[in-house]
Write a structure and sequence with these properties.
Number of strands: 5
Order of helices and strands: EEEHHEEHHHHHH
Shape: elongated
Structural class: mainly alpha
Helix content: 40-55%
Radius of gyration: 25 Å
Largest sheet: 3 strands, antiparallel
Length: 218
């Protein structure tokens, strides 16, 4: 298997005392079956493939439960490469950091398998008390659920954890103490008129068309 940038790929080798094939991932030996056999090679390829998919992280095999903070750290490695546009981080990366801050403060040391609907509702309540808008709270809850959904896809947490969190619905307008976001108002005509001379001709024509028809940029 070719070497990759960063941490080198663990080697397939022979354990002399037992005659077994073995590879060492993150300081832990994994025995693959009799050395030199097709079955041991297949097992080696499978283990390395999963290790690479996890971002060169070994599965949780110590017997200790994966904590919420550890799950977030795993997810963040994925998010940094996923939420990118034209080679630059999108605004979603910053939004994820904000959404995860309270989760880590309140539940960082809790096993991820024990993070359930009541924990999610407690975080929601804290955000209401912090005077976040209903829309922002719902978006943050969606990001938290997304972390656990991703954890299920990576076999880091069981599916029932995400399924339980999915039962927590978003806050409904008029049925919560969370404040509503202010309306998005149109830019005043004087500002539009002062901006037009500084725009490229095509963009300026687009603005004029939108102003006349009331259409949106999309």
């Amino acid at each position: 298997m070719p070497r990759t940038v960063g941490q080198s790929v663990p080697k397939y080798r022979k354990h002399r005392a037992s005659g077994q094939a073995v590879c060492t991932i993150n300081s832990k030996d994994h025995y693959l079956g009799p050395h030199g056999t097709k079955a041991s090679r297949i097992e080696y390829d499978r283990m390395i493939a999963e290790w690479l998919v996890r971002g060169r992280q070994s599965p949780e095999e110590s017997g200790e439960a994966l904590t919420v903070t550890e799950l977030i750290v795993h997810y963040w490695r994925f998010a940094k490469s996923h939420y990118v546009k034209n080679g630059k981080p999108t605004s979603e990366q910053a939004s994820i950091k904000v959404a995860m801050r309270l989760v880590r403060e309140l539940y960082g040391n809790v096993p991820a398998t024990e993070f359930g609907p009541l924990a999610l509702k407690a975080i929601r309540l804290k955000q209401i008390e912090s005077r976040l808008s209903r829309r922002s709270i719902n978006q943050n809850l969606g990001r938290i659920k997304r972390v656990f959904k991703w954890g299920v896809s990576e076999q880091l947490v069981p599916a029932e954890i995400f399924q339980a969190l999915a039962t927590v619905v978003g806050l409904r307008q008029g049925r919560t103490e969370a404040k509503e976001s202010g309306p998005v108002l149109p830019v005043d005509e004087l500002t539009v008129g002062a901006t037009l001379p500084h725009l490229p001709d095509v963009v300026a024509d687009m603005v004029r068309l939108q102003r006349i028809t009331g259409s949106r940029p999309a």
